[in-house]
Amino acid sequence: MKKKILSAVLCVAMLSSLLVGCGGAASSKGGTKVGVSMPTKDLQRWNQDGANMEKELKAAGYEVDLQYASNDVQTQVSQVQNMINSGCNVVVIAAIEGSSLGEALDMAKAKGVPVVAYDRLIMNHDAVSYYATFDNYKVGTVQGTYIKEQLDLDNAAGPFNIEFTAGDPGDNNAGFFFNGAMDVLKPYIESGKLNVVSGQTKFEEVATPAWSTETSQSRAENILSSYYADGTQLDAWLCSNDSTAMGVENALAANYTGNYPIITGQDCDIENTKAMINGKQAMSVFKDTRTLASQVVKMVGQILKGETVEVNDTKTYDNGALVVPSYLCEPVFADVNNYKELLIDSGYYTEDQLK
Ligand code: BGC
C-alpha cells in the first residue's frame, strides 16, 4: 500500500515536470542520453543552470553529459561533437558565441540529433530545433523602466546624467537587453532630459566582450576619470547584467565621490544581491534558473517522445536561417524590498549565502 502511494506520488511529480506517463515512459527512457553544453564556470549563473539541468534530467531518468567550455568557442564545438559521437539523443547548448557553432550543428544535423538552444539563441543554422530562454527584451525594458521611474523622468526637471554598459556582442541576448532598455530611455535622451556625458550610446560603443567584470570596470574607470572627475554628478548607469554591473560598482568605489547613482543589473548573483542589500546596486532582474531548467527538461521529454513541444513564441527569434520556436520564461524585477521573498523564501539562496 505504502509502495503504491509512493509510486503514485513519484508519478505525479514526474508528470508535472515531464508530461509523460508513469511506468512505461520512465522505463523507455533507459539508455537515453542528453548532452548539456554550458559556456563557462566563471559566472555564477551557468553553474546553477548546469546543476539544475543535470539534477532534473537525472530525476527524469536520463543519462546526462554536462560539459563547461571555459568560454572558449573551439572547446564548446569539440564538446558538442563528442556528445553527438558518444550517442547523445538530444543536445542542449548555451552558446558562448551564437554564430560560431556551425561545425557542431552540421554534425547534429547529419546525425539527426535535435538541438535545443538554452538561454542564448544559436545563430545562422537550421539545425536548431527549439529555443528556451527568458523574455530577453523584457529584461531590458524592466531595467529601463526602473531608471525612468526612479528619476521620475516624466515629471522631474532634470537633466540627469547617465551612462550605459551592455553585454557581449557575440551573445544574441545582449542586443535584446540593450534595445529593451534603450526603447524606454531613448525618448528622454532625445528630449535632453537624460544626458549621456561620455556620448557613448551605441551598442558597439558600450558592449562588453565575454560579459567580463574586469573589462566593464576598466571602461567605467576611463569614463569616470575623463568625464566625472571634475565633480559632475552621475545619476544612473544602465548595466545589462550583474557581472558588468559589478565592474561599474568596483570602478565607482575607487573613482567617484558624488551622490551614488542608480545601477541596474540582471541575474541576482550572490555578490550583486549583497550589493543591493548594501545600497551599491539598485536592482537586478531575477531569472529563476530552476524555471528554465524545468522548461527545457519538459521540452527534451516532448522531443524524445515525438509529442507536440510546448512553445509560446514563434515570431521573435529569427536566427538567420529560421524563426526558432521558443519558450520564453518571465523575468522578475528584484530589489532590496523583495529579494527575501524571491530568493530566500523560494529556496534559491540561504540567508547565510547573502551575509
Ligand atoms: C544571460 C544573462 C547573463 C549573461 C552573462 C546572457 O546570455 O542571459 O543572464 O548575465 O549571459 O553570462
Rounded radius of gyration (Å): 22 Å
What is the N-to-C succession of helices and strands? HHEHEHEHEEHEHEHHEHEHEHEEH
Q: Helix tally?
A: 13
- Cα(first) to Cα(last) distance is 46 Å
CATH-assigned fold name of the largest domain: Rossmann fold
Architecture of the largest domain, CATH level 2? 3-Layer(aba) Sandwich
Name of the level-1 CATH class of the largest domain: Alpha Beta
- State the CATH superfamily name of the largest domain: Response regulator
Helix share bin = 40-55%
Count all strands and give the number.
12
Main sheet strand line-up: 2-1-3-4-5-11
Q: List low-confidence stretches.
A: 1-28
Structural class of the secondary elements? alpha/beta
Main beta-sheet annotation: 6 strands, parallel
What molecules are bound to this protein? Answer: beta-D-glucopyranose
Mean pLDDT: 92
* Fraction in beta strands: 5-15%
Shape verdict = elongated
